[in-house]
Amino acid sequence: MRRCARAAGTAFEQPEAVYPDLKGLPKEEFRNAVLKERAQEFVGEGHYRWDLIRHNRLISTAQANGVTAAAGKHNLFPIPTQQISRNSQITQNPGY
Q1: Where are the alpha helices (H) located in the chain, listed in sequence order?
Q2: Taking the mean position of all CA atoms in its chain, how far away is CA 12?
Q3: What is the DSSP-derived secondary structure letter of residue 78?
Q4: To pair with 37 at 20 to 30 A between CA atoms, which of 25, 43, 51, 76?
Q5: Mean pLDDT, residues 14-30
Q6: 34-65, pLDDT tens digit by residue?
Q7: Angle at Cα 13 formed by Cα 11 and Cα 36, nearest 5°?
Q8: Residue range 24-36: mean pLDDT, rounded
Q9: CA dist 51 to 81, 87, 91, Å?
Q10: How far apart, in whole angstroms, are the C-alpha atoms of residue 42 and residue 31?
């Protein structure tokens, strides 16, 4: 599949560094590589935040990039007050 993505055997062939072979990587390195590729491929589409939340890395990644205000509450969005007032069973997400 990677050969196909690199257009191997065509006039548009890309070097292996463009889409390196991920076969044989340990699980954590494989996940890191996939997250990095998704971040590059879907830049500006808003997928990266959800990927980081799914892998429980949003806060640590934000802090590593200098975002000092990053806190656990940022894994969830605040529930709009209007929705809470309409349904007494709903409570606000922690931290908001």
Answers
A1: 2-5, 27-41, 47-54, 58-64, 81-86
A2: 29
A3: P
A4: 76
A5: 86
A6: 999 889 888 889 899 999 999 999 999 999 99
A7: 150
A8: 92
A9: 27, 30, 26
A10: 16
